[in-house]
């Protein structure tokens, strides 16, 4: 897989951290973050996929949705092309998204 964008600093919500070792492994989550950075956005719809492709070129919020062992979670990158800002990726459960 070819990396399409840098995910920057990756942070996990408390709810995701609580799932590690219970329902999800760190390796499974890391694999999904890698898939996200390579343009595999999991279960997002067509509209989100089209937006993601645009944001890879110009910066913006890139969102992926994955389900592992019945646990649905999001990987969201605030992708910044400007060198003065930092790209950050968050891994979170749907109930963490506001």
In short:
The chain has helices at about 15-20, 25-35, 45-60, and strands spanning about 10, 60-70, 70-80, 90. It is an alpha+beta fold. It is globular, with a radius of gyration of 13 Å.
Summarize the structure in words.
With 98 residues, the protein is an alpha+beta fold. The protein contains three helices and four strands; from the N terminus they run βαααβββ. The radius of gyration is 13 Å and the shape is globular. The model has no long low-confidence stretch (mean pLDDT 94).
Count of helical regions:
3
* Fraction of residues in β-strands: 25-35%
Shape: globular
**Count of DSSP E strands?**
4
Structural class designation? alpha+beta
Low-pLDDT segments, ≥5 res? none
Distance between the termini: 31 Å
Q: What is the typical, i.e. mean, pLDDT?
A: 94
């Amino acid at each position: 897989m070819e990396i399409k964008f840098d995910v920057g600093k990756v942070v996990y919500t408390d709810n995701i951290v609580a799932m590690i070792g219970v329902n999800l492994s760190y390796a499974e989550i890391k694999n999904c973050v890698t898939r996200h950075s390579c343009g595999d956005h999991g279960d997002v719809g067509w509209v989100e996929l089209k937006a993601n492709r645009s944001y890879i070129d110009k910066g913006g919020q890139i969102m992926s949705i994955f389900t592992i062992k019945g646990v649905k979670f999001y990987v969201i990158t605030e992708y910044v092309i400007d060198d003065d800002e930092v790209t950050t990726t968050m891994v979170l459960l749907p109930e963490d998204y506001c």
